[in-house]
Design a protein that fits this description.
globular; 20% strand; alpha/beta; 8-stranded mixed sheet; 246 residues
Amino acid sequence: MKVLVLGASGATGRLLVDALLRAGVQVKGMVRPGSTYPLKSDDREGFSRIESSIAQMSARELAPMIANCDVVLSCLGHNLSFRGIFGHPRRLVTDAIRTVCQAIEINRTGRAVKVILMNTTGNANRDIPEKPPWSQRVAVGLIRTLLPPHADNEAATDCLRTQIGQAHARIEWAAVRPDGLIDEAVVSPYALLPSPTRNVIFDAGKTSRINVADFMARLVTEDALWQRWKGQMPVIYNAEYSEPVD
């Protein structure tokens, strides 16, 4: 099995690449051109590093890179700096997902390609639909207006939900929604849920990046798990945060 990981040098992307390699998956990792950040996977068998910017790439340029890939995973996100939040590209994640889907259509392989997107609990699944508490809806509305990365996260999943949908011939998808991201050294027990169980603004839980990486890698390698969550937006919490605080 071969996959492409977008954002492979990011905090979660590095962990995802490692989890996939440990599972015996061949990984292409895309990193920004000129990036000097060393990946511990660089010298490992089964890993190839691609220095390219998805934001500057057309679907026709991307198509040959994913022609033999079974899965494309995105851990892309905006840097938490003024330029990263308010600068360009404002639709980094959305444009990348759209480019990936167009490239898959160009290739027209005889099998469905999986697209797995790392997203956020602040983005409600409007397919269900979810009914977050009033205070959360107000806060998210402000965030959507004031912070372009949140609108980007919403538009990226809308691309999958509304343009690809549930019965596409060549594309299957899932959008993984962690809550407040934290760093931990090892995989710990985690809960997978169809919707948040907490107020994601005023009672947020925690999700370790290594648990997100583990779950995304399992979506690649475990067919039963994929069948459970494809076409959905599963929420992942570290187990101790899966229920709201009384």
